[in-house]
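Side project, low priority. Logging it here so it doesn't get lost.
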Amino acid sequence: MLTFKTLASGSSGNATVVSHGDTHILLDAGISARRLTAGLRLMGLDPSRLSAIFITHEHRDHIAGLEVLTKRWRVPVYASPLTCAQLNYRMVRMEDLLRPQTPGTGVDVGSLHVRSFATLHDAAESVGYTVSCDDGRVALCTDLGYATPEVREAVKGVNLLLCESNHDEDMLLAGRYPFHLKKRILGDHGHLSNEAGARLAALAVEAGARTVILGHLSAENNTVQHARAATELQLLALGADPVRDVDLCVAPRGEAGPTFCLNRGVSMRESDQACAICI
């Protein structure tokens, strides 16, 4: 059984745990090591059992807890070559843990196959990830200026998608952010709006995804209701019922979300009786 759980997903911190059998990987470590450790242990998972950490890019909301976590538990850290260079520059005792992974390539970690794909963001060399095994395939797709052909291809065929739904454009434009920050967020190397994220989610659903998690919501320029409504509208336009056909969830910004369990491609939340054995 493949399990997927966000520990945090938002402008102030991002971390996700994917597990299959005895293989456990962390996608980003953007909250404090204390919070990461507490979140893992609440799942029944000691940090010493982590098989690897995969980093999407070097912004603080994706690496805040990485240095302290890896000082105590010497877990291999995979990232793109330029992101590895950034991590090595910023953090001590990191060089021997870094495993550069060229965007577009895959690596086997235990029973999981993790493949990266290039994304457009204002970072050195940002990526997203797909994680797959016999029980299914999931994708983490956040911090995107827009959905490039590589991104669109990556989400096709996944069972579960964590998709960026960062901001409501009207809220952002009317909000108190300075002009240069608004321009950065709305630009090709910024973040996906609710509508853009909804279109990417609809593409994944059209290709077979049955679980969509909306993530990386802005605390200032979005609400759960705005993000969800935009995606529901796109799904309805596609002919998919957001309740009957798709399990649509909004990841909490500052706390753990539900555990999603995939068994031979069928996804259920931890509250379902069939998922009682989930982490």
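Brief comment: The domain at 2-275 is CATH 3.60.15.10 (Metallo-beta-lactamase; Chain A).
Revisit when time allows.
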